[in-house]
Amino acid sequence: MSLFVLSLGFGVVTASVLSIAALGFTLQFGISNVLNLAYSSFMTLAGFIAYWLNTKGLDIWLCLVVATAATAILSLGLSRVVYEPFIRRGARSFEILIISLAVGVAITNLLLAFIGPSGFSYPGVQRASVYHFAGLTLSSDQLVVVAIAVVLMIGSHLLLTATSIGRALRATAENSELARACGIATPRITRIVWLLSGALCGAAGVVLFLSISSFSVQSGQDFLIPIVAAAVLGGIGQPYGAMLGALIIGLASEVSAAFINPSDKEVVAFALLVLVLLARPQGLFAEAARQREVIT
Amino acid sequence: MTDEQPILSVRRVRKSFGGVHAVEEVSFDAAPAAITGLIGPNGAGKSTVINIISGSLQPSGGSVIFAGHQEMLGLPPHRRSRLGLVRTFQRSGEFGGLTVLENLLVAGTDPKEISLRSALIMRRRWRRDEGGLLDRAAEMLAGFGMLDKANDLAANLSGGQKRLLELGRALMLTPKVLLLDEPFAGVSPVIAHQIEILLKRLAAEGLAILLVEHQLDVIGRLCAQVVMMAQGRVLSTGTMEELRGDPEVVDAYLAG
Amino acid sequence: MSSAAQFYLTNILVFFGVDLIAVWGLNLQFGVTGIVNFAFIVLQSAGAYTAALLTLGPSSGNGGFQHYFGGTRLPFPLPLIAAGFVGAILSALLAILTRRRLRGDYAAMVLLVVSLMATTIVQNQSGFLNGSAGLSLVPAPFQSIMNLTLVGYAWFYVGLTAVLCLIALAVVRAISNSPLGRAMRASRDNEESAAAIGLDVSRARMTAYVVGGALAGVSGALLVQYIGTWAPGAWLYPETFVYFAAVIVGGRGNVLGVAIGSLLVNIAIVEVTRYLPQFGPAGFIDAMQWVVIGLLIMAFLWLRPRGIVPERARQYDLARRPGAGRAASRESADREAEAP
């Protein structure tokens, strides 16, 4: 029983990181109709920007803020310099996908070329304080990670319900073809969404690196499977779906990994993904109209 | 006009999208050797009905009967096409990477020859059949005045030519019923005239045509029978003159 | 020519032949049928593992330092044929997974995840295919029987590779030029219209998956029996990307085009960087190769998306057909009839 509760704790941490990441990923799809496979490489980039600043002596939480802002700007740059020109030209969706993969591979390997394959940890982070309660054992950093995730999810909820951007995002989530045809995805809104989702991507990257004991250039990419699984499970393009999907995948993979081989964590996420695809490919939250989006 | 059995029967078809009733209790028939018009304002559900008949959309209820006895529901679009129920699209769906001729060839090829076995082992058979197919396609192109474009990529055609190609492709399947989704939209008067003559001739030769159109003068010229839809229902059926005289119809569509 | 130079040359020729078979398989899936199979490398790898398992014998042999399931010794060409089958079957499973009419890029993303999962599973399950260490000491066909020098055997293998390439070429050309090939292209260009003219798009796609998978499997078997080892490091998901680069750069849909693309991307880039002076930290040049490939793909998709040698549609000479005169005269008659 205690193992179960313990793994629940880890599950909550994983779900927290995953929720931030999956939300950003799904928002990019919602507003631009792009499956941004370079996403995990940007997460890695953010994690290493934070690392570099941390080695220069900057407090880790400030590093998080700076890396988040930097990734927001870089993501906006990616959409404007790479994706939008191709979209304007009428490139087909699979061509954009290949390009996103190309960007991801290029960035990951650029990092690999200059940083190397070895593992790192944030020098400015001590894992000293550990808290026990209700059978859970979490370090203070992990608790902060969960807190950040909760704050970001609440913030996103407020954004979605109370702002015009949120309305646009909900409209594209409900029926993206119609929404785009109605011109909801204006250039201004698109830009803001890329900034916000890029920020989520950056935050997710740093937070991911914080939550694992050692990270390398490959770490972001290892996380791609759970991100895709969570986004697909919730319904790609559905913001609340991404949050729920992250919770399910995070908890399920940690809890099951506690009882079976721990290195099989990703297998669980993958198995869930396959099940969803075979049974209900549009995900949990999609409505009938949205079926047309990913099912032709 | 003819008391032959209708070759296409739409019976009480309904379609709902999550609470929105796009189509409600739609029933009508299409007779062979005649052109039946399907008109109505935007949002009336005409395209939805066509999609249900062709198989791209599953209805929430009702049935589609073909050739008097065959229930179409449950059959995927390509099977319906093979049986003789063929449709065209509002936006021309030409195969851009193939030539004009190849577009016609791929439609007219015997499905038994589209297989791995045929490609690897039974090459002589499809090579032999290709001759007859080429002749048919060439005649079709000649009829459209597009013989000189035969070896051009379909993507390089003009809008009107693409529309003709779309029609030609459908005809290569020797259909019994032809569903045309706004074939006159955006084509030049010359090509529109060509299409009108062609449709009249096809109907005279026995083909049943269901024509969705906004241009009511064309409907008036071509259609013996017209089905008028509005807000997902069939409002009225009759000749164009009868419909023009129906105040309900005029209200819903013709006025303004 | 010196021994070393001959080894170098035979290596390049065998690798090129292997890549040709693979890239023709990918071209059938992606270039001709429009399937973005991001799990392609898994199919090649499955063929390699199959051939290895069918030639290594049981895992207790060779001192038992490798742990894998099954294991037997079958003579040539059975492992090769089996590899083709395994590639075909695995590919069919991928087709079924993405069959629920998922839109193109969504399906591709799923296949990418499959590729990631495959390497993860093989690496973690050490008893399955010997985990990260992979399989080694895979015997080469006929080598023990033939009384050749190492160089001589290498040339023999080049000949074997060439024969398989010719067979693969014949198969893909036959399909490409047939009504099936036309149907595949139609499915690629406009799936909805293809169904509307009676084409069974699922079946055409399944055929592309299966044949492409078989070719990938054979290429893997051919490779593993030459180099003797196969480990997860050799088939990570970016390797699919290299093949995609070859197809896009060379000219998707065109058999000659993708062959040229393979020569440029698979062979030239790797060989050129081999002779560059090693600068930067270790692994710098290897990593930069990937950056170059990524940039190359983007550049080609922007500047010349159809590739170096674009796909050429089949031209028919209608003038020489017996009905030509009739058709032409009918056309002019129609024109006269229409004149007001």
Features:
heterotrimer; A: 296 residues; mainly alpha; ABC transporter involved in vitamin B12 uptake, BtuC; two-stranded antiparallel sheet; 2 strands; 3% strand; disordered C terminus; C: 340 residues; 13 helices
Commentary on this structure:
The complex is a heterotrimer of chains A (296), B (256) and C (340). By secondary structure, chain A is mainly alpha-helical. Chain A is 75% helix and 3% strand. Chain A has helices at residues 2-32, 39-55, 60-88, 93-115, 140-162, 164-181, 187-211, 219-222, 224-234, 239-259, 265-279, 291-294; strands at 130-133, 136-139. In chain A, α5 packs antiparallel against α7. Chain A is globular, with a radius of gyration of 18 Å. The mean pLDDT of chain B is 89. Chain B folds into two domains: 8-94 and 173-254, P-loop containing nucleotide triphosphate hydrolases (Rossmann fold); 96-156, no CATH class. Chain B has helices at 46-54, 77-83, 100-108, 116-120, 123-144, 159-171, 189-204, 216-222, 240-245, 247-254; strands at 8-17, 20-30, 34-39, 61-66, 70-71, 85-87, 177-181, 208-212, 225-230, 233-238. Chain C is mainly alpha-helical. Chain C has a single domain, classed as Orthogonal Bundle (ABC transporter involved in vitamin B12 uptake, BtuC). Chain C has helices at residues 3-32, 40-56, 78-97, 104-124, 126-129, 150-176, 179-189, 191-196, 201-227, 238-250, 255-274, 284-303, 324-338. In chain C, α1 packs parallel to α6 (150-176), α10 crosses α12 and α11 runs antiparallel to α12 (284-303). Chains in contact: A-C, B-C. Chains B and C meet through α2, α3, α4, α5 and α6 of B and α6, α7, α8, α9 and α13 of C.
Task: Describe the secondary structure blueprint for this structure.
The complex is a heterotrimer of chains A (296), B (256) and C (340).
Chain A: H1 2-32, H2 39-55, H3 60-88, H4 93-115, E1 130-133, E2 136-139, H5 140-162, H6 164-181, H7 187-211, H8 219-222, H9 224-234, H10 239-259, H11 265-279, H12 291-294
Antiparallel strand pairs in A: 1-2
Helix pairs in contact in A: 1-5, 1-7, 1-9, 1-10, 2-3, 2-4, 2-7, 3-7, 5-6, 5-7, 9-10, 9-11, 10-11
Chain B: E1 8-17, E2 20-30, E3 34-39, H1 46-54, E4 61-66, E5 70-71, H2 77-83, E6 85-87, H3 100-108, H4 116-120, H5 123-144, H6 159-171, E7 177-181, H7 189-204, E8 208-212, H8 216-222, E9 225-230, E10 233-238, H9 240-245, H10 247-254
Parallel strand pairs in B: 3-8, 3-9, 6-7, 7-8
Antiparallel strand pairs in B: 1-2, 1-4, 4-5, 9-10
Chain C: H1 3-32, H2 40-56, H3 78-97, H4 104-124, H5 126-129, H6 150-176, H7 179-189, H8 191-196, H9 201-227, H10 238-250, H11 255-274, H12 284-303, H13 324-338
